[in-house]
Amino acid sequence: MTTTYTKRPTSKLSRCASFRIILASIIFILTSVNIFFAPKLLGPAEYPSNFLHDFKGRSLIYSYNDNTIGISGSRNHTFFYADATNSSRLLLQIAQTPRPIPDDVINITMEQQRCRRHGLQYGNRTTRRRIFWGSLLADDSWHAIGSVALETYGIFDLAVFVESNLTQSLYHRDIRFFPGSEAWDVVTKSGMFGPTTKVIVDYYYKKDPNLRGLEREHAQRALIIDRWKKEGMTKDDIGYISDADETFTRDFLRAMQVCLVPEFEYHNHCELPLVRAHSATFEGSFKCLTSKWKRTPSLVIGECIDKIGDDTKHPKPERSWNTIGWMKDGWTRKGNFSFILNTTIPPTIINNNKEINRYNTTKNVLSTQYYPLLNAADFRRFYGHTYRKSGFHFHNFFSSIAALRFKYNTYGHPVGNAQNEMLPVENIHVDVKAMISCVMDRPFSNPKFRVLKDGMDFSNRKKPAVYQYKEYVDARHREIYNEILIDESKRIKTRQLDLKVNTSK
What is the pLDDT at residue 504? Predict the structure, then answer.
């Protein structure tokens, strides 16, 4: 059998085909010019459109496949993602990208204005106080960690994390940030906390079954101050302890570094050395701002921190939890310092929350008396001055509902049946119910607080730095919405199956 191939006759190109070729050529030429002379962001379409604004005009080429970026005038930078997925991966890309520190240089006019915003005076400082930060670290989501990193980028001299292989309820957990792991790389090598911020992860291993709850938490936090001391903290530096999902506002931290702060300057030998935040609380999504305000985290000047200040001058107090907890009441203002002063007469510097001129040192009638130095537990308990609207709490920002259930079942205040998928997730805790109501746009009623719809509308308060990246904020909101739907669908399917089994009997 013979196959015959017939050659098609040639013909001139149609006008349409010619037009397409010319158009394609023009597009190719324009694209080539753009690539060679004005590099722009190349990568996933969901990347924030305003991402480049931090670079002040510098060109940026992003390669999605080889995991590196090149920035004009700087070395290649490697991104680390660990187990981050979807929107949390996007957040880590944003947080890890090298960029200038916007408020690094002291501008006297701006610092004067900053101090006034927080009810403080500017003392003509020309250098910033150093800040040493510390936090416990466990199964915290990248949403919380990345958001705190964005808020505090370039501010800390040292950041210390402490991780344990047991939860406060003594549930075993695998170490997540072990040396060499990509999770460890994210926090210690990526530069997400700033180009010169040193980040260290320490580990707490102790199987004592009697060491649980807050006592175990205090024991872990004690390692933070130990590390501060090893890394050269002085009495003039600021100690800052928070949870991984809490942060002071950037503006407030900068104020603490340059302003005349009474708790740092006129604390009366550590009688009143603690600065406390007044933190707006978000539940699960940056669009779910609540009316709850939390009085953490806290700052203390190094002069009044245990192992940093002069312990030969300050009395050693009695403490709870086998000496690692907070001071007993007689050693604090709550107990009128009765163990120190041997009197029931309260100090005259402060009367409840009504403060006598905190800048007037002549009021310090007890100036010859030294007060105890604060340990890590005191950061969370000791009386301090609260500065209004000075912080944020990114609460319940877990990557999945399963992770949220695990947290409530195993950590500080466990809910025994939280991991039972037949238990509606909103019944685990009122805070979770607030999150569900906001994300799913359902009614929420609680006598203690309310949900403020769409947290992006932040009135006249300082907004979190993460608000610059609306694409990420929206993506996070959609993700938690879908997670809630999936969790609820599991109960529906189980009930349908049970009903089918019962009707077949």
Answer: 58
